[in-house]
Amino acid sequence: MSTTTPIPSTMKAVRMHENGGPDVIKYEEISTPILSSPSQILVAVKYSGINFIESYFRSGLYPTQQPYTFGREATGEVVAVGDDAAVKFQIGDKVAFLEPGAFAEYMVLDTTANHRIFKLPAKVDLKSIAGALLQGLTAYTFIHEAYEVKAGDDILITAPAGGVGSLFVQLCKLRHANVIGVTSTASKVELAKQLGCDHVIVSSDEDVASRVLEITNNKGVEGAFDGVGKDSFEFTFKSMARKGTFVSYGNASGPVPPLNLLTLSAKNMKIARPTLFGYVATPDEFNKYTGELVDLITQGKLKVNISQTYPLKDYKYATIALESKESTGKLVLEI
């Protein structure tokens, strides 16, 4: 193992010891992890993205072992390297990674067991990458694999001013699609338009499906990407075109109710419920998609809308803002 800087014996992390609301979130001092295998690296975490999925683990919707350290995407700097890992990584390398437990000052990553570690260019904005890794890869892989967005397609995107929705909008526009955004409040309409939406529908004020049919000359949309879930499922379903593909990927308003598959027959529709990790299951897939995403960000073609940065100790307040739908764009923790 090699290291050039002293590593403290303890660190700060954000964890929970029981399921519940935001009050179960604890900012704690715990032992700093150490390398236990020559294939591991130790990363000093700099920024970590905040995602709605953490509320599912906290509530118990997604079961997990406890104590549970929150977070699953981050950027940082390599500060210690095992002998075998030195083939790929050196001290001082900037990295982005997907790994549970990212709301902590240090993380041990196994370069053999986890292929979702990406060596970044030396000059890169670590905050932007941390804010885009999980959601950016979700949007980027979905527009290639869940439904391949094509020029001229009419595409419906729910929550277009949110973290992942804003990336879906931009990526679909880069593919020259016509984007219809659906937001719950009028206050987010202007931001959705700035991000690239050709049309924005306020679901609390309008009949979404009727408006979509009006915009598309009664055709409907070829593709839809919905992360809201229960509250948006019905109008999204009704907005689909013949042979359209409905991609449902989130439960922000609650789980989607059971679906009778026979209802797909009327339009020969497809419906998908993919996860990011099914599209980056191999090193080649992860490196391809992450490399292309990082290039889009560093070239300025994809803007990461980080609306607010919180210190690690304030994650509780950040997730309250996120879960109450008060926030727009992406929320990030500075570690």
UniProtKB/TrEMBL annotation:
| The name this protein goes by in its record | Probable quinone oxidoreductase
Organism superkingdom: Eukaryota
Pfam families tied to this protein: ADH_N, ADH_zinc_N
Q: Which organism is it from?
A: Nadsonia fulvescens var. elongata DSM 6958
Instruction: List residues of the Enoyl reductase (ER) domain.
Output: 20-333
UniProt GO molecular function: mRNA 3'-UTR AU-rich region binding; NADPH binding; quinone reductase (NADPH) activity
Keyword hit for Transport: no
Gene3D superfamilies, from UniProt? Medium-chain alcohol dehydrogenases, catalytic domain, NAD(P)-binding Rossmann-like Domain
CC per GO annotation: cytosol
User: Which InterPro entries did the record assign?
Assistant: ADH-like_C (IPR013149), ADH-like_N (IPR013154), ER (IPR020843), GroES-like_sf (IPR011032), NAD(P)-bd_dom_sf (IPR036291), QOR-like (IPR047618)
